Amino acid sequence: MIRVLMICLGNICRSPMAEFVLKDMVETRGLAEHFLISSAATSREELGNPVHPGTRRKLTEVGISCAGKTARQVCKADYERYDWLLVMDSSNLRDMKRLFPDDPQKKICRLLDFSKQPRDIADPWYTGNFDVTYDDVVEGCEAFLAHVLHP
Ligand code: 4NP
User: Fold this and answer.
1) Which residue from 6, 7, 8 has its CB within 8 A of the most atoms of ligand 1, so it is best to mutate?
2) Ligand 1 centroid vs 11 CA: distance in angstroms?
């Protein structure tokens, strides 16, 4: 079982998008039973709130449902619960390093660190551009899957 927690600031825009895109990819490949995938926030800003309408609209456009997902905050126990804690940007990485200063197993990475061009995923909460974020999320999830399936 490969356990993956996607993480961003609010857990309403980018990390739920990454959660449901990766779930869709493993389902399409017939690998769903081998993965546990979820998402969480570094902040308390949006706790309990549903996925942002922009993310919901983009996922619906590509045939992916995120029904029932509400924001929750990452907690200490998540370090043992998950094999990978994948953040969306450098600011999330700094927040996670404060919570988990050691990261002995090097579980905490940016999603796009697995791609050929390691970089942050822009926050559509500020940019308003959910299409660019979606393309980056797909690139990151594909690169991450290739990394864990064909190490
Ligand atoms: P996310 O976007 O981290 O991609 O979910 C944000 C959502 C909410 C806020 C910031 C970023 N906020 O400040 O409430």
Assistant:
1) 8
2) 7
- Is 94 known to be catalytic? no
Where are the domains positioned within the chain?
A: 2-149
What would be the CATH architecture of the domain defined by 2-149?
A: 3-Layer(aba) Sandwich (3.40)
pTM for this predicted structure: 0.98
Cα 144 to averaged position of ligand 1 atoms, centre (Å): 23
Owner of token pair 């990394």: 147
Q: Average pLDDT for residues 132-141, to the nearest whole number? A: 98
Model pLDDT for residues 80-126, shown as the tens digit of each residue: 999 999 999 999 999 999 999 999 999 999 999 999 999 999 999 99
Q: With contact defined as beta carbons under 8 Å apart, do 143 and 115 qualify?
A: yes
User: Which of 22, 18, 46 is closest to 35 using CA atoms?
Assistant: 22
| Strands of the sheet with 108-110, listed across from one edge | 35-41, 2-8, 84-87, 108-110
Distance of CA 85 to the CA centre of its chain: 8
Compute the chain's Rg from CA coordinates. Answer: 14
